[in-house]
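Need Transcriptional regulator's 3D structure for a figure. Predict it.
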Amino acid sequence: MAVIGRPREFDRDEALKAAMLVFWRKGFLATSMNDLCDAMGIRSPSLYAAFRSKEALYLEAVEHYAKTIGPSIWDRLTDGPVAHACVENFLAAAVESLPECDLTPAGCMVALAAVGDECPGAVMDAMREVRRHCLEMLRSRLSDAVSAGELPSSTDVDRLSRFYLGVYQGMAAQARDGATSAELKGVAETAMAAWPGA
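Structure prediction for Transcriptional regulator:
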């Protein structure tokens, strides 16, 4: 006879969102299991039963971030008639999204996550992969711009992609340190002044 377990007494999606916000605000290492249980409104056994481990929960929280928060910025890379407008819109979205607000912490969970070697290997690997994907999105858009004649054929697409990703990551770090939207807008405008042929 099969044993029927007790039904889960919490909303898994809401708990995951709460965990994402704690990890985003504090980072993987500084977030304790007590922090997570308090934010998620569950006890430790329920957390482990639903998510297996802190590491697995973190990876799922990052995936949730990438699906729910990331698109508001990264989808803007396709929002414009030409690459210049797309990158400008991407940085403008960062200006709007990166400063702290009532709903979310400051900065970008992915850009600021797991850059130290103290984190478990799987966490570091996952973060590198997400950041690599972001770089590839920039490369793809800028390569298309070269093919379409929007950028000179001599453009070093890799260098330009890394530059704009670095600008975004720097804006995320500055937002975490309290930079205002106006200050981040100045960074974005300066970065766009470096556009080839600008």
